[in-house]
């Protein structure tokens, strides 16, 4: 069947270009190979498709009817190829991005120029701090932080999140600023849930603390912190507005929270082609540029 389709495409090329030699140049093969393909097609079909003379080629009545189908097949293949080329080179279609709740604030400013410039590009956001089945949700691009687990997805670093220890003025007025390791150990800690009730080791210290309040959502932890319920390690940029408004204070302690790399994760290609769809390439570039300015 595939050989037959190839021969039909060769016949369409011969008719389009007016000779075996011209078709051979277009197809980057020899004139004899083109002639052999057409003869094999005629043998398979059981009819003569071309009148051959030393001066020109012309289709037989049967050839005219058959060629119409061949030309339509080639046109459909060329149209499909053009559509695929457009998908590769121009951002369009639905772009599905998975991210944490806190990172959602960056999406609008980062992608607004891209979306405005490409009306054919649509956006779907899968926003949650817990586990997201990236395959089930047909995710094109996932934003992740920190150390990544083993995964078949390809990770590209696009930024860094600086974090510090924060508390509300009301909490500090009641409990005081934790200036010693013991005070840090005895503080009310707000932390993301990790699926266990075990104490957590504070980064860069030998201290282990038991969180008093936990959540599966970083934004909720910030809200609890602003309400005066304890200490929390929060992203500096995420809480900049709350700090400016006086709802949170950055604590100067011996505890230094590590910077977290920000990763753009994309599905592993199984066809050996390292390229990505244009919508994904442009989105990653826009997010990276936005995070560099924000830093």
């Amino acid at each position: 069947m595939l050989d037959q389709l190839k021969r039909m495409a060769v016949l369409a090329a011969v008719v389009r270009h007016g000779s075996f030699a011209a078709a051979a140049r277009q197809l980057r093969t020899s004139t004899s190979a083109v002639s052999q393909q057409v003869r094999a097609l005629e043998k398979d079909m059981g009819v003569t498709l071309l009148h051959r003379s030393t001066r020109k080629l012309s289709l037989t009545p049967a050839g005219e009817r058959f060629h119409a189908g061949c030309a339509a097949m080639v046109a459909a293949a060329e149209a499909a190829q053009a559509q695929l080329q457009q998908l590769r080179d121009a951002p369009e279609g639905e772009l599905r991005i998975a991210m944490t709740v806190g990172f959602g604030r960056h999406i609008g400013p980062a992608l607004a120029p891209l979306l405005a410039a490409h009306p054919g590009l649509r956006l779907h956001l899968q926003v949650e701090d817990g586990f997201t089945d990236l395959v089930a949700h047909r995710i094109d691009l996932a934003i992740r932080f920190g150390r990544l687990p083993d995964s078949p997805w390809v990770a590209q670093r696009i930024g860094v999140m600086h974090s510090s220890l924060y508390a509300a003025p009301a909490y500090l007025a009641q409990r005081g600023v934790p200036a010693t390791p013991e005070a840090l150990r005895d503080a009310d800690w707000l932390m993301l849930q990790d699926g266990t009730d075990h104490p957590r080791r504070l980064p860069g210290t030998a201290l282990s603390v038991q969180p008093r309040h936990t959540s599966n959502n970083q934004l909720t932890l910030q809200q609890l912190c602003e309400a005066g319920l304890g200490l929390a390690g929060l992203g500096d940029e995420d809480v900049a507005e709350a700090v400016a408004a006086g709802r949170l204070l950055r604590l100067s302690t011996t505890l230094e929270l590590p910077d977290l790399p920000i990763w753009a994760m994309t599905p592993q290609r199984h066809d050996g082609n390292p390229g990505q769809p244009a919508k994904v390439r442009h989105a990653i570039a826009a997010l990276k540029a936005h995070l560099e300015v924000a830093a």
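The first strand starts at residue 50 and ends at 52. The chain is about 45% helix and 20% strand.
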